[in-house]
Amino acid sequence: MACLGVFVGYLPVTTVAVSLPVIQRALDASTADLSWVSVAFVLPVAALILTAGVFGDVHGHKKVFQAGLGFCALGAAVALSAQSVTQVWAGQALLGVGAAALLPMTLALISHAVPDPRERGKYIGLWTTSLMGSLAVGPLIAGAIVEHAAWRWIYLVPIPLSLLSMVVAAFVLQESTSQVERKLDWPGQITAAVAIVALVYGVIEGGAGSFGDLRAVVALVVAVCSGAAFVVCERRSPSPMLDLTLFRSAAFTGSALVVMISFLGLIGFFFVLSLYLGMVQHLSTLESGLQQLPVTVLPMVLGAAVGRLMRYLSPRVLITGGLVITAAAFLALTDVGTDTSFGSLAWRLALLGLGLGLAFPCITATAVSSVPHHQAGMAAAGNNAFRQVGAALGPAVLGALLTSEAVGTLPGHLAAAGVPDPTSGEILHAVDAEGLGAVAGLPLGRATGPALHALSQSLLDGLQLCLLVSAVLMLCGAAVAAWLLRPAKGGGPAATAASGGTRTTEGTAVAETGRHRHTTAGAAAADRD
């Protein structure tokens, strides 16, 4: 049931990502609108994942698990009937609420059902495979549907899966709660949610227009004030949602920064990649999904091997090395063009998958290993929250960069393509009003071909800038990992985490979210055996 739950929760991530060009054409959406399609899902996950864990601990993991499935079904139904991009946002947001509940609850269910940490490792491995499997098959499902039906039907699949899972869960799952007393932290929840939403809104609005615009300025000011209020609330709360003393550990702080920085670059890259495959290479949704398989399949294949590598190499080495390889893959992608072949793009994406497969399985294990045992669950949840904040900012930041660079270079490419000045003026006016996707729908006569070529070149300019930014972000993450994950003098939790002394896998560490216990080095090693 946990594997099915996490599969349902994360299916919309790549299913929607590869469908963005089709959604843009169908709903006349701008690039900023498309950013919100992706962000609308990730924002609730980032804002609510910590609270969902507390809700499960207090009211029961089974109840919150079923509620998460219900939100997934409701969100998919709303998006399935969408007639506007605003309704798609609403559906995506409800799906995000469901995913926020399912991620910690599925792990808590496993932790309750399999109390023996030696036995639990097998099930955590299956859970991880299910999560990655949803990301891998999502593009294929979307591609097959869009080939034969309207784009809205990509939202059909989660509805019966969610409802069936809810019914089965009612009969086969036992209720469980945390053995450690916890209370709901409403001040912390509200201030955190306001800070995250305001930050992402300010970035998107500033990128679409100007960061001097009143709405962008107000949003960013609200984000700063809410963030400060969150810190005050958590310091004073008797039962904080996120205990700020965790940040006294350099390893926990380093892993949080690394996962936020790297996911900002990674999820932002997937957003611009879907636009490149659809609007520059003019691939179908199914072809786009097949093209992206190396990125999702390779980390699945590497999972077991990386677990064995952690016996001989510290997480610091694996995380740093993986992020450097990921940065190299982004740099290798900067020379792609309108006619780049499937094979030429595939090896670059496979290199990206290799880097991700080496780095990401170690990050949460490092965060959890760096704190006292009774805080292991909160550390895992906090690390996941930082991951989702980066994922929410990724499409906003890189989408804004893509739009800015493409719009800025479009006049020059139109002139180079020989498009007459009056037609160029009409195109630029449409782009200012409706976004880059509006060019494909303009009746330009003989100028249609040159105009679309100029648009492709402008999008390539934007893609190259985004790839460079993503590469720099990955290198920054690698530098943070190399610096903060160093073994601490005199031992202690930070030293253990950074040196690889605590042999936990990411799944085993995260599983402790439900029960707030941390496995010993010997038990976690037995998990892998």
TrEMBL record:
Keywords assigned by UniProt, alphabetized: Antibiotic resistance, Membrane, Transmembrane, Transmembrane helix, Transport
Disordered: region residues: 492-529
Superkingdom, natural source: Bacteria
Cellular localisation: Cell membrane
InterPro entries per the UniProt record, alphabetical: MFS, MFS_dom, MFS_trans_sf
Annotated TM spans: 35-55, 64-82, 88-111, 123-146, 152-174, 186-204, 216-233, 254-277, 289-310, 317-333, 345-368, 465-485
One family name in Pfam for this protein: MFS_1
Protein source organism: Streptomyces cinereospinus
Stretches assigned to the Major facilitator superfamily (MFS) profile domain: 1-489
Biased composition (Low complexity): 494-509, 520-529
Topology versus the membrane: Multi-pass membrane protein
Organism placement in taxonomy: Bacteria, Bacillati, Actinomycetota, Actinomycetes, Kitasatosporales
Gene3D superfamilies: MFS general substrate transporter like domains
Name recorded for this polypeptide: MFS transporter
Predominant cellular place of this UniProt entry's protein: membrane
